[in-house]
Amino acid sequence: MLIGLTGGIASGKSTVARMLRDHGAVVVDADLLAREVVEPGTPALRGIQDLFGDDLIRPDGSLDRARLGTIVFGDRQAREQLNAIVHPAVRELAKKRFAAAAAADPEAIIVYDVPLLAESETLSHFDLIVLADAPAEMRRQRLIDLRGLNAQEASRRVNAQASDDARRTIADVIVDTTRSLDETATEVDQLWARLTTTDHT
């Protein structure tokens, strides 16, 4: 069973993913895959270097992700160009990870932790789509309080993603991440009980 888990930046999606992993899910993290596909020597990194310039490559050959982020979060065209390089590579690697998990355990519940599900993914191959849901204003404040971003940068990063309504439209299950961790955990427990019944209803 393949679950798509999504949510905007600072929505608590990673917390929900960790709770599902604790229950026994196999979690495939799209952000980690995105780092893997731009490691030194990869075609995606060469594509980024060709498009955005040598200044984004550190002396050790790795990608300067912070510098790249300042470029693409404020420039929609640049972000789309970057996504056109990275997303296909991530999708291919994700498929390999899904196949490996299913081969190891045909009954595995595989959770694809992917922030940009509403923006870029084909939805039909997921059995269920779960949204970690917190409103945009709360997520902006979390970026300021927890990650040290200034208000302008926090807004840019939130606004660069799909709207709250776009995510809610595609979601089969919504986990409210605006409340306490215990309350979120209770919702995840209920979700896991649903996933582990025979009909998944």
Could you provide a short overview of the structure?
By secondary structure, this protein is of the alpha/beta class. The protein is 56% helix and 11% strand.
Provide a descriptive summary of the structure in words.
- The protein is built from ten helices and five strands.
- By secondary structure, it is an alpha/beta fold.
- The chain has a domain of 118 residues: P-loop containing nucleotide triphosphate hydrolases (Rossmann fold), CATH 3.40.50.300.
- The protein has a five-stranded parallel beta sheet with strand order 2-3-1-4-5, with helices on both faces.
- Helix 3 packs antiparallel against helix 5 and helix 7 packs across helix 8.
- The protein is globular.
- The model has no long low-confidence stretch (mean pLDDT 92).
- It catalyses: 3'-dephospho-CoA + ATP = ADP + CoA + H(+).
Class from secondary-structure proportions: alpha/beta
How is the biggest beta sheet arranged?
Answer: 5 strands, parallel
Strand content: 5-15%
| Overall residue-averaged pLDDT value | 92
CATH superfamily of one domain: P-loop containing nucleotide triphosphate hydrolases
- Fraction of residues in helix: 55-70%
Low-confidence stretches: none
Global Rg: 17 Å
Q: How far is the first residue's CA from the last residue's CA?
A: 13 Å
Output the CATH class name of one domain.
Alpha Beta
* Helix and strand pattern: EHEHHHHEHEHHHEH
Number of helices: 10
Number of strands: 5
CATH architectural grouping of one domain: 3-Layer(aba) Sandwich
Q: Widest sheet: strand order?
A: 2-3-1-4-5
- Shape estimate: globular
Oligomeric state as shown: single chain
Which fold name corresponds to the CATH topology of one domain?
Rossmann fold
Function: Catalyzes the phosphorylation of the 3'-hydroxyl group of dephosphocoenzyme A to form coenzyme A.
GO molecular function: dephospho-CoA kinase activity
Keywords: ATP-binding, Coenzyme A biosynthesis, Cytoplasm, Kinase, Nucleotide-binding, Transferase
Pfam family, one: CoaE
